[in-house]
């Protein structure tokens, strides 16, 4: 009996260690995946500067100084504020700035009425909102561990706004999959399964299961469909596939972060947990 007890204790300890590692490193990995598309886009602006300037000037009829200023702002913001989000620093301001970058790119490249582009970038915005919610939750945890000052209840009340952000982020996050369905990348039973999982994530029902399913589907799609590494370096299709690849990677990161922080208070899972 003692040997069995020791064995069970060792197994429990291993499980606890695995869960601790999962909780520690999954948010970091998730944040990196979410901001990976901004890194790729920012670097692409720098090494394709001439092409970007030529497009804005000749196609969009934007003057050279404004085009240069716009590209500089976008590239600098994407690289610097993505790093802030990765290391959980100034997340609120970083999320707001990157959202402005998304809007400015949609306007400057005349993509604001492109349905697929709109769905994808709303989905990425959802991932950014989840980063913000995760940051607020971490701050609240640190606040609770701090000494109990008289103003602490007010501070905690201010931090409770994360539940609205978390709900909005969760809802927006699944729009990328709708974009794939709209674009014809998921059809038939596979598309139906994916849409069902999206609906479950939106209402917060069995989120861990449905998010895991979507991560699996998107990982397979990303490798098989967005295989930009198979195109020649001179092919324009390579740039489009790489752009799609990193956008999909960002949504995968958002879903992984959702697995880490949970669906939030405005969800069926949370209400079911409170009833139990």
Can you characterise this structure?
- The protein is mostly helical.
- Helix content is 82%, strand content 0%.
- The longest helix has 46 residues.
Low-confidence stretches: 1-8
Instruction: Round the mean pLDDT to the nearest integer and report it.
Output: 84
Enumerate how many helices there are, as a single number.
12
Q: How far apart are the first and last residues' alpha carbons, in Å? A: 34 Å
Q: What gyration radius follows from the Cα positions, in whole Å?
A: 21 Å
Q: Briefly, what is this?
A:
This protein is an all-alpha fold.
Q: What's the structural blueprint in terms of helices and strands?
A:
Layout: H1 2-47, H2 49-58, H3 64-86, H4 91-108, H5 115-145, H6 152-159, H7 162-173, H8 175-183, H9 188-203, H10 207-225, H11 236-261, H12 268-275
Helix pairs in contact: 1-3, 1-5, 1-11, 2-3, 3-4, 4-5, 5-6, 5-7, 5-8, 5-11, 8-9, 9-10, 10-11
List its traits.
82% helix; 276 residues; disordered N terminus; mainly alpha; globular
